[in-house]
């Protein structure tokens, strides 16, 4: 695991963007796993001003709220369209987010998992981390072998995410999320975190026990992980970083 610590979240995002630009230079049709939330925003902002063009890159979002579709301002499909597809010039036909309005969400989840496999798997998965240790919407506890599926959100996650909605009661109760097993199959995990509020979760993910009770601890078992942290998010780590 490589940990890159910078003073600000913007610098961390810029370093992460360089890594992705390098991947796309080598592999213009690379498959990216795309994350929402505030953590990857500095990365997307930095990548927007870089070469090469990303028009042939393929993308799979991590998750989506159940009951929200691309027309909903709060849906992840909408956020990915605004922050990633439009900002970075991806081809919308090559980017897929689970359909939160699917008639049969269980089937939608299984289809989504299969589509990732059919694309040859994810080359690089962008990740944030929830304050309770969730990855995507894999709440504690989640099986390390779990696949893309329908999940119920933890009360703490609904509170954390209430800032994007009118109230906590408006945050959907369920979501479709890539599973931990799905995420672990990505060839490279790139996790971003900034701010003091993430310091405890980052320390547990990197240095705590590997347990399904703290889903982000999965990264300790993965052969290729890069963390981009600002100094506040890295402040509770014991180990050396570069
Ligand atoms: C959400 C998302 C996660 C994200 C996490 C952290 O619940 N489902 O994929 O990593 O929250 O969000 P933020 O980056 O805004 O702190």
Descriptive notes:
The protein is an alpha/beta fold. The model has no long low-confidence stretch (mean pLDDT 96). The chain starts with a strand and ends in a 12-residue tail after the last strand. The strands form 2 sheets. Strands 1-10-9-6-2-3-5 form a 7-stranded parallel beta sheet, covered by helices on one side. A 3-stranded antiparallel beta sheet has the order 4-8-7, with helices on one face. The protein has 7 helices and 10 strands. The radius of gyration is 16 Å and the shape is globular. It has helices spanning 9-26, 41-48, 76-88, 105-118, 155-160, 180-184, 199-207; strands at 2-6, 31-34, 58-61, 63-65, 95-96, 124-127, 149-152, 174-177, 189-193, 225-230. It has one domain (2-230): 3-Layer(aba) Sandwich (Rossmann fold). Bound molecules: 2-amino-2-deoxy-6-O-phosphono-alpha-D-glucopyranose. 2-amino-2-deoxy-6-O-phosphono-alpha-D-glucopyranose (GLP) binds next to loops. Residues 35-39, 62-63, 128-130, 136-137, 157, 161 line the site of 2-amino-2-deoxy-6-O-phosphono-alpha-D-glucopyranose.
Give the end-to-end Cα distance, rounded to a whole number of Å. Answer: 11 Å
CATH class: Alpha Beta
How many separate structural domains?
A: 1
CATH topology: Rossmann fold
Helix content percent band = 25-40%
Main features:
single chain; 242 residues; alpha/beta; Rossmann fold; 7 helices; binds 2-amino-2-deoxy-6-O-phosphono-alpha-D-glucopyranose
List the helices and strands and how they pair.
Layout: E1 2-6, H1 9-26, E2 31-34, H2 41-48, E3 58-61, E4 63-65, H3 76-88, E5 95-96, H4 105-118, E6 124-127, E7 149-152, H5 155-160, E8 174-177, H6 180-184, E9 189-193, H7 199-207, E10 225-230
Parallel strand pairs: 1-10, 2-3, 2-6, 3-5, 6-9, 9-10
Antiparallel strand pairs: 4-8, 7-8
Helix pairs in contact: 1-2, 2-3
The structure holds 2-amino-2-deoxy-6-O-phosphono-alpha-D-glucopyranose.
